[in-house]
Each structure stands twice: as structure tokens, then as C-alpha cells.
Write a structure and sequence with these properties.
Structural class of chain B: mainly alpha
CATH superfamily of chain B: MetI-like
Number of strands of chain A: 10
Largest sheet of chain A: 5 strands, mixed
Number of helices of chain A: 15
CATH architecture of chain B: Orthogonal Bundle
Helix content of chain A: 40-55%
Distance between the termini of chain B: 23 Å
Number of domains of chain B: 1
CATH architecture of the largest domain in chain A: 3-Layer(aba) Sandwich
Distance between the termini of chain A: 97 Å
Oligomer: heterodimer
Order of helices and strands of chain A: HEHEHEHEEHHEHEHEEHHHHHEHH
Order of helices and strands of chain B: HHHHHHHHHHHHHH
CATH class of the largest domain in chain A: Alpha Beta
Structural class of chain A: alpha/beta
Helix content of chain B: over 70%
Largest interface: A-B, 45 and 37 residues
Shape of chain A: globular
Number of helices of chain B: 14
């Protein structure tokens, strides 16, 4: 009897304890989903900080971290829905597009006090003029990475290196329309924010001219290809060059003399976010000068905050590739937001470039091809019917014998 | 009769939900524009991509033919071994399929690259390196490697089922080995050839990853174009129209193929 009572008491205690446990542990742990570029956060390799782990330790908020390889991929993902993200880190022009299409939440800057450390130069930008939707994560430049072992120094310095037949099959190219068009436009002396159809077509034709020389259109795969010398020249972001050169010291970086893209990648909260406050806490954490310094020292990208640069080791904080001189920076141009129709036009021209089907001018040839297609189908169907008919006849003959 | 209809109910339901309805969605996307209005533009634009369609058909046919040439003798050999050996060889054929298709393709990249394993080997032996990757041949190689089991397995099953008494009868009646093969084995294995050919051709024609990894920038296939319409360009309508076009090509090709075998039951389009 006594033991029965004891057992019941134990059972009650156990039940109570179980009921209390989740409460005392702070209910269910909050998880946020962060959607960022690949290879774009310090993840604890080579003794550097693991930013997401440090954030979880500081706040108790879990981070579900996923990556994309181009702004366009990210845009398609957001647009098609099916998954929700709390923090995204796209580039300037894409933020402009997301704002115009009402896909971003306004940020509550009371939860992001570290915003004060961001330099004035990275506020009131053309893509987010009122600083309502985004907090700069990094900035950087686009240039040409090349291998000094194979590329003649005399050929370096201009975008035309990527059109140089000497290096046919050893050239990589951006696998996203905006960066690829910018390279062609700068080579042709066209404004990289052009909205005119003729300009876009001219750039597309220039890219089509390059297509046979290109080994592959790549984004993150550029790391492998350049490091193991499968390719010799490629346009990419300066910060990634600084990571690559640590693996292969023969790589060099050049700022094209015709100009280059100067970009800002910024943190935003998309509509449909599940936990806005936690997302803002994450943004705030990444703006913390000490965290920002440790993160960017690993990444090689440039810090949008002078306060953070003070925490870096002086060599990284004054690296001429990450923080180029005023003269070079003067050649940089930022992307502006382009209207949706222009983006779509660029997307479809880009696809034609990549598939080698850029029609000289729409019209005649298009219809020709269609007629050929219809004719081919008709011929096939006729052949099909003929064979069927002859076989039926054979069978019928066989039957009579 | 009624009972067998009732038994196929779950499959019919499955097919309705996961085949018929999605197919309807594809058709709907193919004939509408971004705003959901009816348009023929997407279908008319397919003409622009005709060279890519034709290249895809050509590459898939080449891959299927090579698979047949390699796969038939292999299946014939396996079917003639002892049951023990058969099980072992069957497993060997299946084994590569246990690994991710993406990994297998990436492994080929590492092998064939200019700075890859094969060229490293050649250079170490003092030969001049070869340019092996980024051409149509490499893409076909990738397809053959990935889809060969789909050719061997149906052939093996059919060859195994051939009644050995038929072969013995042919031998008794004075056929030489070659004649037995030509007059008995080969005709009886035609259903296996057709189904193996189809099982290689259909995935090969819609291949997309292999051509990006092993092909050059000009050996892009229709599968790659469809992928980029959905992944990057955000033009579902054109992508759906292309998928529809591809489906028509596949239907026509398989129909013609089945015609040649005279197998009435298979062709129920």
C-alpha cells in the first residue's frame, strides 16, 4: 500500500516536472531562417568566428541558414513562395526591385540600435532612399580575377580580357544577367543602368560574341575553377578574390579601366517573415562592430562601418583590393533599380545569349523556324500513320492465309 | 473484371492527383501570359529554340544507341551465367545507381577536366594532355554512364525469359550459333530493346545537369533552358510551353519506335 502511494506521488511529480520543463526552458526555442549568398558568412572555418553559433549563444535564437547563388534565384524563390524567410541579404538593385514590388517589411530601427555604426556613405542610397527597408551588410567591387601564370600582363586592365580569343575556353562568365550585362555595357561605354532596348540588345550581342569563348557560366563554382587553374580569367567580386588568393597565390585582381560595379549587399526582412523581432535582433547582431569586423575579416568583403574597421587587423582594414584608393573608387558605378519590364527584357535576352539563339532582329527568322518545326512534326506524324497502315495490311494479309 | 477495376482505384486516384492535374497546370501555363490571359506567344516562341530541341533529340538518340550497343552484349552475357553469378552481376549493374546522380556527374568532371585526374596522369607519363571535357562527346558519355542500367535491366529480364527449349530446337534443326541469335534470340528480345531504348531516351532528352557540367556553353540542351526559365528568368509560361513541346517530341519519338516493333499493346496514345 505504502509503496503504491509512493509510486503515485512519484508519478505526479514526474508529470508535473514534465509539464514545467518546456516552460522553464523558455517555451519552444525561436528559430529564424536566414537566406544569404553562398560563401558569405564566417562559419567557423580556419579559426574564424562562427557568426550564427555566436548569435544563438548570445540570444538563444536558433538560425536556420540557407543560401542562394544569385539575386535572381533568390527573387524567384521569394516570388514562388512555399517557404518563408526571416532575413535575406540581396544586393542593391534587387532590393530596389523587391521594394517596388512590395515584397519587403519596413524595419523597426528601435530593435537595431547598432545601425548607428553604419557610415553615412551607405545610408540614403538610391535603392532605399529613406532607409526604411535595409541595413548594409557589406559593400564591394566587381573586377577581373586572372591567373598570372597564364594571362599576359599586357592583356590585363580592361573588360576586353574576357573577350580575348587567346584565352578561349579558359574564360568564365557571370551566371546572372545583371552582372553580365554590366560587363558588356561598360566595355561598350553604355550606362549600366540603361533602360533602352537598343542598348540592351547591343550588350546582348556583345555577350553573344563572347559566348563561344566562355568555358562556363558560373557563380559559386568559380572558386574551384580558378583555384585549380581549370579557368584563367573570370569576373567576380573582390571579396571572393581575397578568399581565393589564399588558396592559390598566383591569382591577381584587376579593376577594369572602363569602370566597374560598386555594390552594396544589405539585410532585409521579406514579407511573410515569421518572427520579425528575432530577425531584427539578427540584423542588429551582424551590425555590431566587433562581430562585423570578425565576420568580414574572414569574408574579405568591405565593411560599411568605420567602427568595425577599427576592430580589424590593420592589414585587412587597409587592403587595397577591399578598400581601393579614391581614384579607383571614382570608376565605380552602382546599380539602380530597373523597372520590371526592363528586367524581364534583360532576362529573356540573357537566356537567348546563353542558348546561342539570340535572333538578330525579331520577325522573319522566328517564323521560319516555326514553320520548319511544324513541318517536321507533320512529316513525323505522316510517317507514323504510313507505318501503321502498312502493318495493319500485313496483319490482315496474314489473317487470310 | 469489375474487381480488377476496383483494385486499380488507388493508382487511378494517384495518377489523377499527381499526373493529370499537374499536366493541366502545365497546359494552362503554356497558353497564358504572366497576367493569366490567353496567349499563343509562348508556343510560337518555341520556334526560336528549334535548334536546341533538335540537338537534344540527336544527343538522346546517340546516347540510347550507344547504351544499346554496350548494354545488349552485357545483358546477354549476364542472362547466360549461373543464378549465383547473375545475382552478383545484377548487383554490380545496380551499384552505381545507389549513389547520387549529381555526385557521379561531378566525379566525371574531376576526371575529364583539363587539370583533372586523367590529364594529370597523362602529363605525369609524359604525354600531351587531351581536351576531354566541354564537348558534345563528354555530354553523351555522361548520359550513357548515367542511364546504362536502364538499358541493361529490361534487356536482361527479357533475355532471361526466353524459353531455352526454343534455342535448343533451333540448334537441333541445324542453326549455327549466329543463326540462332539472329532468328530466335534477337526477335524475341525486341520488346526489351524497345523498352530499354525508351527508358534511356526519355530521361536523356530532358537531361539538364549533365550538359551544364560536361558540355560547352554551346552544347546547352532543352532541359537546361527549361530549368533556367523556372529558376532564374522567372518565366513559367515559356518554360511550360517548352515542357509541352518536349512532351510532344517524346510522344512522337516513342510512338515511331513502338511502330517498328509492331507491338500493338504498347501504342495506346
Amino acid at each position: 500500500m505504502k509503496s503504491m502511494k509512493k509510486f503515485l506521488a512519484f508519478l505526479c511529480a514526474a508529470v508535473l516536472l514534465c509539464a514545467c520543463l518546456p516552460l522553464s526552458a523558455g517555451a519552444e526555442p525561436v528559430t529564424i531562417t536566414v537566406y544569404n549568398w553562398g560563401q558569405y558568412i564566417s562559419d567557423g572555418t580556419d579559426g574564424y568566428i562562427d557568426v550564427n553559433a555566436a548569435f544563438t549563444e548570445a540570444t538563444g535564437i536558433e538560425v536556420n541558414y540557407v543560401t542562394f547563388d544569385s539575386n535572381e534565384t533568390m527573387y524567384t524563390r521569394l516570388k514562388t513562395g512555399g517557404s518563408s524567410y526571416d532575413v535575406i541579404i540581396p544586393s542593391d538593385y534587387m532590393i530596389g526591385r523587391l521594394i517596388a514590388e512590395d515584397m519587403l517589411e519596413e524595419l523597426n530601427f528601435d530593435n537595431i540600435p547598432n545601425y548607428q555604426y553604419i557610415d553615412e556613405a551607405y545610408k540614403n542610397t538610391s535603392y532605399d532612399p529613406e532607409n526604411k527597408y535595409s541595413v548594409p551588410y557589406t559593400w564591394g567591387t566587381v573586377g577581373i580575377i586572372y591567373n598570372t601564370k597564364y594571362v599576359d600582363e599586357a592583356d590585363v586592365g580592361s573588360w576586353d580580357l574576357l573577350w580575348n580569343e587567346k584565352y578561349s575556353g579558359k574564360i568564365l562568365m557571370f551566371d546572372n544577367p545583371r552582372d553580365a550585362f554590366a560587363a558588356a555595357e561598360q566595355l561598350l561605354g553604355i550606362d549600366i543602368n540603361t533602360e533602352s532596348s537598343e542598348d540592351l540588345r547591343a550588350a546582348a550581342e556583345k555577350l553573344a560574341e563572347q559566348q563561344p569563348l566562355v568555358q562556363q557560366y558560373v557563380m559559386d563554382q568559380i572558386y574551384d575553377k580558378m583555384q585549380n587553374e581549370e579557368a584563367w580569367a573570370a569576373p567576380y567580386y573582390a571579396g571572393d578574390y581575397l578568399m581565393m588568393v589564399e588558396e592559390n597565390p598566383d591569382l591577381a585582381f584587376s579593376f577594369p579601366k572602363e569602370g566597374f560595379n560598386l555594390f552594396i549587399d544589405a539585410m532585409c526582412i521579406p514579407k511573410g517573415c515569421q518572427n520579425k523581432e528575432a530577425a531584427e535582433a539578427y540584423i542588429n547582431f551582424l551590425c555590431d562592430p566587433e562581430i562585423c569586423a570578425q565576420n568580414l575579416e574572414y569574408l574579405g568583403y568591405s565593411a560599411p562601418s568605420t567602427a568595425a574597421r577599427e576592430y580589424m587587423d590593420p592589414e585587412s582594414a587597409s587592403n587595397p583590393i577591399a578598400y581601393p584608393s579614391e581614384d579607383i573608387l571614382a570608376l565605380g558605378e552602382s546599380f539602380n533599380y530597373l523597372p520590371t519590364e526592363v528586367n524581364q527584357e534583360m532576362d529573356s535576352l540573357w537566356l537567348e545569349v546563353k542558348t546561342g539563339s539570340l535572333s538578330p532582329e525579331s520577325g522573319g527568322s522566328q517564323n521560319m523556324a516555326l514553320y520548319i518545326a511544324i513541318a517536321a512534326v507533320v512529316v513525323l506524324v505522316v510517317v507514323f500513320l504510313l507505318i501503321r497502315g502498312s502493318q495493319k495490311k500485313k496483319k490482315a494479309n496474314r489473317g487470310t492465309h | 473484371m469489375r474487381r480488377s477495376t476496383w483494385l486499380s482505384g488507388p493508382y487511378i486516384l494517384w495518377m489523377a492527383i499527381f499526373t493529370i492535374i499537374p499536366l493541366g497546370v502545365v497546359v494552362w501555363f503554356a497558353f497564358t501570359d504572366g497576367a493569366g490571359h490567353f496567349t499563343l506567344d509562348n508556343v510560337l516562341r518555341l520556334g526560336d529554340y528549334l535548334p536546341i530541341f533538335l540537338r537534344s533529340v540527336w544527343m538522346a538518340l546517340a546516347a540510347a544507341l550507344i547504351c544499346l550497343v554496350i548494354g545488349y552484349p552485357a545483358a546477354y552475357y549476364i542472362a547466360g551465367r549461373s543464378p549465383m553469378a547473375q545475382r552478383f552481376l545484377y548487383m554490380l549493374i545496380m551499384l552505381p545507381m545507389c549513389m547520387s546522380f549529381l555526385l557521379r556527374t561531378l566525379a566525371w568532371v574531376a576526371l575529364l577536366e583539363d587539370t583533372g585526374i586523367i590529364n594529370g596522369f597523362l602529363e605525369a607519363l609524359g604525354f600531351t594532355p587531351l581536351h576531354l571535357i566541354r564537348n558534345d562527346g563528354a555530354v553523351i558519355l555522361g548520359m550513357v554512364y548515367n542511364y546504362l542500367p536502364y538499358m541493361i535491366l529490361p534487356l536482361y529480364t527479357v533475355l532471361l525469359k526466353i524459353d531455352p527449349r526454343l534455342i535448343e530446337a533451333a540448334q537441333d534443326l541445324g542453326c549455327t550459333g549466329a543463326q540462332v541469335f539472329q532468328k530466335v534470340t534477337l526477335p524475341l528480345s525486341v520488346p526489351g530493346i524497345v523498352s530499354g531504348f525508351t527508358m534511356v531516351f526519355v530521361p536523356a532528352i530532358s537531361t539538364f545537369y549533365i550538359s551544364q557540367k560536361l558540355g560547352s556553353t554551346s552544347s546547352i540542351l532543352i532541359g537546361d533552358v527549361i530549368e533556367s526559365q523556372f529558376k532564374g528568368a522567372y518565366n513559367f509560361n515559356l518554360g511550360a510551353a517548352m515542357s509541352l513541346g518536349l512532351m510532344v517530341i517524346v510522344f512522337v519519338c516513342t510512338a515511331v519506335m513502338h511502330r517498328f516493333t509492331g507491338d500493338e499493346e504498347v501504342v495506346t496514345l
